[in-house]
């Protein structure tokens, strides 16, 4: 059996096209385009790549975008001041502070400062709490993008067994909450889990978010399972590697995401979806 490919690149392009149509309608009705502000502290190369990609996405869908480049030496108070200014900016609906931040900055306090209504990353405790309570408002982008991919398979999630490998605040935990919300029986494996492979083998839906290339070998996969690879590691010569040993996994899984071209484009598409949603809610005075 060879797995069907979950083509994130294609599905993300379809999402952007739909957003572009909605933005055009909004603008035709006399409402300003949605605005996304990205704050970049310091000039880390990987962050530059992400920020440029976000700017291109904004351009494609018709959003106004603003990038604030701030020096790595900025103080906590100054950075909080910039966030407060963006919270108050009338042309901005989404505020994203690119991570990681320099070590002298308390990133949690910065996240807490972002207006939850403009928190298009979905990292604010308010938005994580809303997701946990099954009343999602602006949920985190990676897990939201994965849910769009799962939906595209047409497979019923209710009652399925799902295993998430990795329990990070921004990816693994919200992923587990999303799966629980749609009725999966969820296991989360993490660095203290005694037998992650056994948990993986029970899963109809296996999601890996670790960042360890080749961790998920064919023997971790239940035949026919949906395998979603969130892990992205940049190797020699800048090549991207997922957590899943793709060549062998594709022979066992029913569906599988490639790396690159799987979850990555969906995370970016979900950011555009969250920004449009934030803009629509702000325009309606909610
Ligand atoms: N750095 C890498 N990915 C992300 C992301 O999705 N959001 C933020 N804020 N920073 C990141």
Task: Tell me about this structure.
- This protein is α/β, with parallel strands linked by helices and 286 residues long.
- The chain has two domains: 31-115, Leucine Dehydrogenase, chain A, domain 1 (Rossmann fold, 3-Layer(aba) Sandwich), CATH 3.40.50.10860; 141-264, NAD(P)-binding Rossmann-like Domain (Rossmann fold, 3-Layer(aba) Sandwich).
- It contains ten helices and eleven strands.
- It has a six-stranded parallel β-sheet with strand order 1-11-8-7-5-6. The protein has a three-stranded parallel β-sheet with strand order 3-2-4, with helices on both faces.
- The longest helix has 21 residues, at 8-28.
- The protein is globular and about 50 Å long.
- Bound molecules: guanine.
| Structure ligands | guanine
Radius of gyration: 19 Å
CATH class of the largest domain: Alpha Beta
Order of helices and strands: EHEHEHEHHHEHEHEEEEHEH
**How many strands?**
11
β-strand percent reads 15-25%
Low-confidence stretches: none
The major beta sheet can be summarized as: 6 strands, parallel
Tally of structural domains = 2
CATH architecture of the largest domain: 3-Layer(aba) Sandwich
The fourth-level CATH homologous superfamily of the largest domain is: NAD(P)-binding Rossmann-like Domain
- Provide the structure class: alpha/beta
